Amino acid sequence: MAKKQFKAESKRLLDLMINSIYTHKEIFLRELVSNASDALDKLAYRALTDDKVGVDRSELKITLTPDQIARTLTISDNGIGMTREELESNLGTIARSGSLQFKQDMAAAEGDKPSDVDIIGQFGVGFYSAFMVADRVTVTSRAYGADEAWQWESTGADGYTLTQCGKDTVGTDIVLHIKANTDDDKYDEYLEQYRLAELIKKYSDYVHYPIVMLMHKSRQKPRPEDAGDDYKPEWEDYDEWETLNSMVPLWQRPKSEVKPEEYNQFYKEKYGDWEDPLSVIHVSAEGAVEYKAMLYIPSHAPFDFHSRDYQKGLQLYSSGVLIMDKCADLLPDHFRFVKGVVDSQDFSLNISREMLQHTRQLKVIAGNLEKKIKAELLRLQKDEREKYETFWKAFGTQIKVGVVSDYGIHKELLKDLLLFFSSKEGKLTSLAEYKARMPEEQKYIYYACGEDAAQLDKLPQAERIRDKGYEILYLTDEPDQFVVDALGAVDEIPFKSVDDADALPETEEEKAALEKKAEESKPVLDFLKETLGDQIKEARVSRILRSGAVCLTADGPITLEMEKYFQRVDPENARNMKAQRVLELNPDSPAFAALQQAVETDRDKAAKYAKLLYAQAQLIAGIPLEDPAGYTELVCSLMQ
Question: What's the confidence (pLDDT) of residue 100?
Answer without folding.
Answer: 46
